[in-house]
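Work through this:
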Amino acid sequence: MIVRRLPYRGLINSHLRVHLKRPQGSRDMARPSSDLAAFREIFSQAKNIAIITGAGVSAESGVPTFRGAGGYWRKWQAQELASPEAFSRNPSRVWEFYHYRREVMLTKTPNPAHLAIAECQERLSRQGRTVTVVSQNVDELHRRAGSNDILEIHGSLFKTRCISCGHEAANYKSPICAALEGKGAPDPDTNDAQISVQDLPRCEHEGCHGLLRPAVVWFGENLDSDILTRAEKVLDSCDLCLVVGTSSVVYPAAMFAPQVAARGVPVAEFNMENTPATMKFKFHFHGPCGSTLPPALARHEAEQT
């Protein structure tokens, strides 16, 4: 079972609280291996593979992460804008920020890591094997690469939710509304556009016309319980887990792979640096995901044709 004791960014999903049964005799693994041939042998036999992805898998596509030094939009970090309180105080500023992110994403393309995952999914599905992506990213690059079994636990930049009727829908308009055209510049000297609430994105579902918000999980909000339940089933049943480009510090996703490892399932980490969870895993492959992941997921000679 996947433990969900810690919520996303601070709140408790109390109705989802379950406890991990640690297998008898289980222990933290020794220093992880970087033996690609050994990983490939396990990969060739795995029937249900879970791939957990984070911001690092998209960084090579030029996607801003808004984490760490320099991770600012104007004078704000994402944490100061990505919350219900920020949206309530200044929906115009928050929509400028998300409009900027949406427009940036429309200029980006999937990199070799996204493409390798998508190709692996399609290839293994023909062999009766499953590959499920559990992504913390909101950029939809996995979808654009061709992946079709994705659990986006933090939502999507290209979905909206009405704060009045709750209707959620895909939205790829550019710009998302006329008032935001040419807005959202990230330069710290740029003044807020101060767009009227009535001119911000509005709900078109059954004539509601309520104010829309980005359908992403903000700081202080719970993750979607249905998506978490589906992720739990994937992680409980996987016989191989990959952790790709995630810092393993954002909860509850940071607990997913360590809990898989705790029940004796091989976990392979692909990242530019060690993370707080690295020592719990069987494998660690250091370097850009776009370089390390494709050879790891390429067709193995033992695979069915």
Notes: The chain has ten helices and eleven strands.
